Amino acid sequence: MKQITDDTSNGRRKFLSSVTSLVGTSLVMTIPGVGRAEGIWQQTFTVRQVIDIILKEIPNAPFATTVDQLRSGSIDQEVTGIVTTMFPTIKVIEDTAKAGANFIIAHETPFYNNQDETDWLQEDDAYRYKIDLLNKHKIAIWRFHDYWHSHKPDGIIMGNLIKLGWEKYHDVNSPRLLTLPKPMTLKSIVSLAKERLGIPTVRVIGNLNQSCSTVYLAFGYMDSKRQIAAIQQYKPDLILSGETREWETVERVRDGQLMGQKTSLLVLSHAVSEEAGMEYAVKWLQPKVPGVKITHIASTNPFTFL
Fold first, then answer.
1. For 23-27, 68-72, 129-133, which range has the lowest pLDDT when averaged over its residues?
2. Which residue from 62, 174, 192, 258 puts its CA 20 to 30 A from 43's CA?
3. pLDDT number for residue 11
């Protein structure tokens, strides 16, 4: 994707002020990308421009291969509002339209597979309904997965740490391994995660009275080989996980416990384990696109626990 090299918003404002003083407001209003709201000159943005602004903040972007692609809408449509979310569900799309926004920045796939392949979905009722809904409201969806994880610091990790009150313990040299200054029991960490991240139910393998000082962060989905390798390398007190296949990391942790190892596992569920990171994206992106309203709409936990 070609990078946009527009002036910064501050520079643009100075330019507009200078031009206004010379030619008057009526002529300035004819300059593309300039609007007026409540008496204040304001820049408008296309989807392409917003994406390029984001990519400027990501090391080594744009990537040659990435799932972070435009999945609906037009790259050149003017943005009326931005919504961040985890999963762009039908409800999130409907709520986006109600909010007057037309650009969804979603962490995960809208189309039920990581590569967003759709050939196999052409006759699927849910896919067709979702596509019709997006077309009806002219909503663009862009995935912000690989790039957000590649940001320094990782946007998903930082969003969660802020929610948990642990951001000051983040180590840039070992971003997934957290060392708490004062040990907490596993039970206390469970209570903290449920309260701060808004998760009603979690799954735990380990002794709730165990003292935890080191926490390995595996929000969302992480390949079990990486998690098992982390157990061997770091020997953390706890793996804080989004989701994992039950016959892999789960069984490795259970066997480790049975042989006297200390690593426990706390499984939060995928969607809710990364939602805070996409909520944090609002605060991160808003100063970069002044005049555009950005809202976080949570896709929420899909499960009902009985």
1. 23-27
2. 62
3. 46
**Domains contained in the chain, CATH given:** 1-43 (no CATH), 44-150 (3.40.1390.30), 155-271 (3.40.1390.30)
Give the dihedral of Cα atoms 221, 223, 227, 228; nearest 10 deg.
150
pLDDT interval class at 25 (50, 70, 90): very low
pTM score, two decimals? 0.85
According to DSSP H, which parts of the chain are helical? 9-23, 25-28, 47-55, 90-98, 125-137, 146-150, 155-164, 186-197, 224-234, 249-258, 270-285
3-class secondary-structure state, position 288? helix
Radius of gyration of the chain from its Cα atoms, rounded to whole angstroms: 22
Q: What is the residue-wise DSSP string for 32-93?
A: TTEEEETTEEEE--BHHHHHHHHHTTSTTPSPSS-S--EEES-TTSBPS-EEEESS--HHHH
SS3 243: strand
When pLDDT is averaged across residues 279-291 and rounded to a whole number, the result is 97
Q: How many residues does the chain have?
A: 306
